[in-house]
Design a protein that fits this description.
The complex is a heterodimer of chains A (about 325) and B (about 300). By secondary structure, chain A is mainly α. Chain A is built from 14 helices and no strands. Chain B is globular. Classes of the chains: A mainly alpha (about 325), B mainly alpha (about 300).
Chain lengths: ~325, ~300
């Protein structure tokens, strides 16, 4: 390679270490000008992200210590009252329990059923490829469209679901309006969009996994369970954890389903934290208190994500 | 191929009874597979079928029980929607989707290239920040933005909504573009430089064409996300810039007696997204997983 001498400079003190050959090569080949070019290319996006995320975050944090309420318009005096309030309020406890129930049920079932669905679709033939396309469909459907459609299907007097149950002489629950079935119903609708997401991701991992180990295990006389447990599962585990992560994020952010299907009711039965934050800030205009709840949401959400993250790192 | 087949040593035949047993197991196994897949498919298709069939029914037929499977299809729901306020909200959704995609790509593609090619000091921190921005619930950003916008007069404006969407979409774009650029061998850029291309020209003429499929994938995923977004739009838009998903919800509230129009509105939101997804197909999974799983 005929590289000009000016481009051959290496940063002083930077020794080519193992694991970073491309880094070193890059530094060697690039002049100061090139580095400036790359820096310039990254700066606008970096600044934009920083401004539009850090500024609201800081303001949100500030508001959570403010005394803005529906009746009091000033930020001052600064106070811990909002946090004190959410700590004491039994409504918040109910909302937190609802959130945990919703996230655990939705993510758990989606991960399990999605894994099962993916395993059913591994064999390749024409019929299976039709199913693969069908299960891709929910991924494209906007949450609001899924919500209105399921809302109509689960409607108590006029929905198709109750009609079919009636034909089959099965009990017709008051899906979205009864305290016992409202939350399971929302979870069911969440499964509709979530299970295919997990299935599609896990299937992609299954299909790209090397075939040799499975054949070797087969030759060694491993049964179906042993093959799954010791060969297939380790190969798809990263994809499965990633899918679970994505669904956890989605579950905490879920909004359209709650607003359209139940509006958080009956009572507080389906009010989860994200929806409660919206209600307090936008509907009831309790800005300061809502901001404190938003911080609580951030903290609550970090816990399962960190657990999953650690889980994905452990070998 | 034929040579290979000829030279392949003959496989030792398996004992006959065992093979018979395995065949039987396989047949019942595949029947069970099909039964389960069909049940799952019915579950998945049911709401889509409801949307599709109800959208073409008259308001009365929409409520008929038993459901009218075959009724004279009507397009009156669509004409009512498109000539009314809903037509405007579709346009709004389109404007917002195109603008968010354009901003995300214009800023995100060069940044993705830079991140993939050049070691940035503090790169790990930037990465974590981007993940946080993408993963954090929109409420964290959008509710303070709502307050800020009240003071800046950005409520119910296109730039306000687009800016709010970029909190998640821009990190997503940079992250995913970085993955796509990292797949392009560095030697390609270097060859172009040696041949006398400037950095800009090498990016434009050599590297960009190579990652073009990645760019279209990211563009469509970003467009799709902003097209169907509901939470932010519900809070930050009003009369003027109301997007289609928010308009759909307003139908739930006001015309509860008119399921056929509601379904038509829902269908209008679903179909463009469906077409866009068919267009990107293969990139979809890698996009979903931040490029971690490739199809």
């Amino acid at each position: 390679m005929t590289v000009p001498a000016t481009q051959r400079r290496t940063r002083p003190g930077q020794l080519p270490g193992p694991g970073a050959p491309s880094r070193i090569a890059a530094l060697r080949n690039w002049s100061a000008f090139d580095r400036r070019f790359f820096r310039l290319a990254a700066v606008p996006a970096f600044l934009a992200v920083f401004v539009i995320t850090a500024v609201p975050l800081v303001i949100g944090l500030g508001l959570s210590f403010s005394s803005v309420t529906s009746t009091h318009n000033g930020v001052f005096p600064l106070t811990f009252a909002n946090y004190q309030h959410l700590w004491d309020d039994s409504e918040v406890h109910t909302v937190l329990i609802n959130t945990v129930i919703y996230v655990v049920l939705a993510v758990g079932l989606e991960t399990l059923l999605g894994l099962g669905l993916a395993l059913l679709m591994t064999r390749k033939n024409r019929a299976i490829s039709v199913f693969r396309v069908i299960f891709l469909l929910p991924l494209t459907v906007a949450g609001i469209a899924a919500a209105i459609s399921w809302g109509a299907l689960l409607n108590t007097s006029q929905g198709w679901v109750d009609y079919f149950l009636k034909l089959a002489h099965l009990p017709q629950p008051n899906w979205l309006a009864s305290a016992t079935t409202a939350m399971p119903s929302v979870v069911l609708v969440d499964l509709w969009s979530g299970v295919p997401v997990v299935a599609v991701i896990v299937l992609a991992a299954l299909l790209s996994a090397p075939k040799d180990p499975i054949e070797a295990a087969l030759v060694d006389g491993a049964g179906p369970w042993a093959r799954f447990r010791y060969v297939t599962f380790p190969a798809i585990r990263p994809a499965l954890v990633l899918a679970a992560l994505l669904r956890t994020v989605a579950a905490f952010q879920q909004f359209a389903l709650f607003q359209v299907l139940t509006g958080g009711g009956p009572g507080l039965n389906t009010t989860v934290l994200n929806f409660y934050v919206y209600q307090q800030t936008i509907v009831f205009n309790n800005i300061g208190y809502g901001a404190a709840l938003a911080m609580l949401l951030l903290v609550v959400m970090a816990v399962p994500l960190l657990v999953l993250f650690v889980f994905s790192r452990r070998r | 191929m034929t040579i290979q087949a000829q030279t392949r040593p003959a496989r030792p035949a398996r004992p006959a009874p065992r093979r018979g047993l395995r065949m039987a197991g396989r047949i019942s196994g595949s029947t069970l597979t099909f039964v389960l897949l069909i049940i799952a498919a019915i579950f998945v298709l049911l709401p889509l079928f409801w949307l599709l069939s109800t959208a073409f029914k008259t308001p009365n037929a929409a409520f008929a029980l038993p459901p009218k499977w075959v009724s004279k299809p009507t397009t009156s729901n669509f004409s009512t929607l498109l000539t009314g306020q809903f037509g405007k909200s579709i346009l709004n959704s389109l404007i917002v989707a195109v603008a968010s995609t354009a901003v995300a790509l214009l800023l995100g593609v060069p940044a993705g290239y830079s991140f993939a090619r050049s070691p940035v000091r503090g790169g790990k921190i930037i990465n974590s920040w981007f993940i946080l921005a993408y993963v954090a619930p929109p409420a964290i950003f959008i509710i303070p933005l709502y307050i800020i916008y009240q003071h800046l007069g950005l409520l119910d404006t296109y730039p306000g909504l687009v800016l709010a969407y970029e909190t998640g979409l821009l990190p997503f774009t940079v992250w995913l573009m970085r993955v796509y650029f990292a797949d392009v061998p560095k030697e390609l850029d270097e060859a172009a430089w040696i041949d006398g291309c400037s950095k800009m020209r090498a990016l434009w003429r050599v590297v960009l064409p190579t990652v073009w499929p990645g760019i279209t994938t990211v563009g469509l995923l970003v467009g799709l996300a902003s097209w169907g977004e509901y939470f932010g739009a519900a809070i930050l838009t009003g009369q003027r810039t109301q997007t289609a998903p928010v308009a759909v919800y307003s139908y739930v509230g006001t015309v509860t007696s008119n399921w056929s129009e509601l379904a038509a509105a829902g269908l209008i939101v679903v179909v463009p997204a469906l077409l866009a997804t068919i267009a990107v197909q293969r990139g979809f999974v890698s996009g979903l997983t931040f490029g971690a799983v490739k199809q």
